[in-house]
Amino acid sequence: MTSVHFLLGFALLALASSLASAYDPSPLQDICVAIDDLKHGVFVNGKFCKDPKLAKPEDFFFSGLDKPGNTDNQVGSIVTNVNVEQIPGLNTLGVSIVRIDYAPYGQNPPHTHPRATEMITVLEGTLYVGFVTSNQLNNTLIATVLNKGDVFVFPFGMIHFQFNIGKTNAVAMSALSSQNPGVITIANSVFGAEPPINPNFLGRAFQLDPKVVKSLQAKFWTSN
């Protein structure tokens, strides 16, 4: 019986340890301003930290998020990032923000953030937004129309999108649960990969003629 209790306790301890290590650890310091100095920095969570005693207000500051971005591109939208690359003081804090500008009928194409949940707030205009659940939940589309002041959440890792369905410009702000959430735009990644993915493979995967795949791969794919 003692051995059974021991094995049960060991299993619970292993499970607790695996759950505890499944998320980023809480920071063990007040601040960890990111620097590129490999000689004098301490490597923490993807960035080196400078001496906290040398921190300055500008390490935690960004200006210009009130300025509209240029939406003159293929998709008619532009994302202005404010993450650890723009605010070094965000390092280890697990948050960031973006501004998204949309031309009339502009879109933020289907994409995913590999390291973050996103919460979007519409400041101006009307957006059709949504995300698709995983295979486990039958790839269900969960979508709605947002107006000024509305908020919507895109869960961690889910493929999601936004589309300006109005005749005027639209603006939104998104908060993300990572200092560097990353982005994978689905069409860009699949058809714009370099070197190209074998078109015969993609043709079978997407049930397309390989000639159609080659045509898609020949297009100029860009990220907003």
UniProtKB/TrEMBL annotation:
Highest taxon of the lineage: Eukaryota
Protein name: Germin-like protein 1
Native species: Melia azedarach
